[in-house]
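Hello again, I could really use a second opinion on something today. I've been staring at a protein lately and its backbone has me curious. You're getting the sequence in one-letter code plus the fold written as tokens. I'd be grateful if you could look everything over and explain what you see. No rush at all, and the record is pasted right below:
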Amino acid sequence: MTESKHRAGQGERDHFVACLREVRAARGHLVDARADGVRSQEKQALRADLLVALERYALAIVELGVPVPGRLRREIDLYRRLEQPH
């Protein structure tokens, strides 16, 4: 049985790059907030924003037809756990 390989189009690649930029920006905001001693509640909102960005990025990777790296899956799992009430 032959397996057809998915070839990403320019739109998918552009979407991937946009998602990567979104992740970098969200990470940067969170790092800045930590360094500036921002309140916990505000950091929680920034973590939620980062989680959304990471999930979009993972979907963009899947759209390219490649597996989501384990490190990214673990990071998403971490931020999902942090979102859960204690």
Observations:
- Residues 10-83 form one domain.
- The longest helix spans residues 10-36.
